[in-house]
Amino acid sequence: MNEQVKNLILQKIESYNTIIISRHIRPDGDAVGSTMGLTKILRDTYPHKHIYLVNEDFSDYLAFCGGEDTAPEDIYADALQIVIDTGTKKRISNSNFKKAKEIIKIDHHIEADPYGDINWVEDFRSSACEMIADFYITHKNRLKISAEAATHIYMGMVTDSGRFQFEGVTGETMRLAGAMLDCGVNLEKLYAHLYSEDFKIFEFKSYVYNNIQITPNGVAYIYLDKAVQEKFNLSFEAASNVVGELSGIRGSLIWVAFIYNSKKENIRVRLRSRFLGINDLAIKYHGGGHNMAAGATAYSTEEMFELIKDADKLLGEYKSTHEGWL
Predict the structure, then answer these.
(1) What's the pLDDT score for residue 50?
(2) Could you tell me which of 34, 231, 232 has the C-alpha nearest to residue 131?
(3) CATH fold for domain 199-321
(4) Which among 129, 160, 194, 310 is most buried, taking Cβ atoms within 10 Å?
């Protein structure tokens, strides 16, 4: 079935002269890598087509990947819109996407909102970039790929999989990653961009390690309010990345970062887990995502503590009914 969908997507791409590619708001490496990678592949393959990469926000820490485009509204009526790595319409980082003649959705999140005229969703994939790599390999006799495009795609694969540690990583993931490396990815340069940090971030991490809270059943969490973000001069994006610092605590199979959002006056929630699923918990709190990596929103500190309470109960139930967890 998915082979047919991939073939249909290529047919649509070849039939349109104008193609617009977008992703989700507050982009991560997978969103940026998948959209930039596909954009570069299509531009190299079809130099006569008008291909735009259009989004309404960007990621400071991924600025090394390059810039994006603007597109006049009047081109949408005859355009194909491709949205990647975005589970729901409300998270699409292009308010004009609905004006397109046709929409293709390419995504690896649990299906909640099939907004595309064509929906290619594989929630077993570790990243959307893995799907773009697969799309290229499926049609490599008709598509062109450069080292630049492969680097974008590999970046999304490595970041969204936690350097190939998370659920969803398979032998196929590694084979597709290897295919991208064979196209000329400079790993040393890429990793220097991704994992070198300013000294102020190390100062912030020191604060995090001293302020992590642990619930009775082992949920690790931290709340970064407005004052903390201002103290360390953090962008909202940099503050949100703190969830990665909570992993690795023995016995803490769920970890949660709460980040106050000054613009919306709510609290962004980033949920991660090991061995047990937390997507249903995220859905309860106005979010969703993957089985072991999801996002949510708390609209007050009271709701934040309710989420912590529910997470602690969930983890307690898991530990009481399962053996062999670390």
Answers:
(1) 97
(2) 34
(3) Diaminopimelate Epimerase; Chain A, domain 1 (3.10.310)
(4) 129
